[in-house]
Write a structure and sequence with these properties.
Blueprint (H helix, E strand, L loop, with lengths): L9 H19 L14 H29 L20 H18 L6 H27 L4 H9 L2 H21 L6 H12 L1
């Protein structure tokens, strides 16, 4: 089965800008305390939503916009961080992992008609596993930790990331029902075929 074409629409630039802003705003919120867990930063929730709502191409564009803002020094990351120094620190792998992560999220979530299980699977695989696959090795190298030690340290964030996967799934499916124009034309067309077919 061939994939339907996914042309860039005029309003896609606005969608990308909106989701870049969402990622920034979720970072500016700062860590959210969760009883019994490591505090959660909401910024990766924005990355997950960019992939599930915008798809791989537009989602990646939104993430790249945020990373460019970071690189030019704007304090748009969690905790008000920004600047080229961020790309030399132990979290650089996680930041770089946002790009392949959002691509995988979009490819899985929008691989067919948008369904909750595809959204959840995309957010889990791309938003957690892929980002960790980039983040943990980079953290180990930069912080001079054994790979296993870096993985164990990162495991403390898994419960929060699972919460973000659940929230992403709920928010994406709610938006899909309430406001289909937020999604690319190909996703809207699949929805129309399903409701009229």
């Amino acid at each position: 089965m061939t994939r339907r074409p996914d042309p860039w629409e005029a309003r896609d630039t606005a969608r990308v800008a909106v989701f870049a802003a969402i990622i920034v705003v979720l970072g500016l919120m700062g860590p959210i305390p969760v009883p019994g867990l490591v505090p959660i930063t909401a910024q990766t929730l924005g990355v997950m939503l960019a992939g599930t709502v915008l798809g791989w191409k537009r989602g990646a564009a939104a993430v790249v916009v945020v990373l460019v803002l970071v690189a030019i020094g704007l304090p748009v990351l969690s905790g008000g961080r920004g600047g080229l120094g961020v790309f030399l620190g132990p979290t650089v792998g996680y930041l770089v992992g946002w790009v392949p992560g959002v691509i995988v999220i979009g490819l899985i979530a929008q691989s067919g008609a948008l369904r909750w299980w595809r959204v959840a699977l995309g957010a889990l695989v791309g938003g957690v596993l892929v980002i960790y696959a980039f983040g943990i090795p980079a953290q180990a190298v930069i912080a001079d930790l054994p790979l296993g030690g870096a993985a164990i340290a990162s495991a403390a964030f898994l419960p929060g990331d699972i919460i973000k996967v659940v929230l992403c799934t709920i928010l994406t499916m709610s938006l899909y029902r309430a406001y289909p124009p937020a999604f690319p034309a190909r996703v809207r067309a699949a929805r129309s075929r399903r409701t009229t077919g």
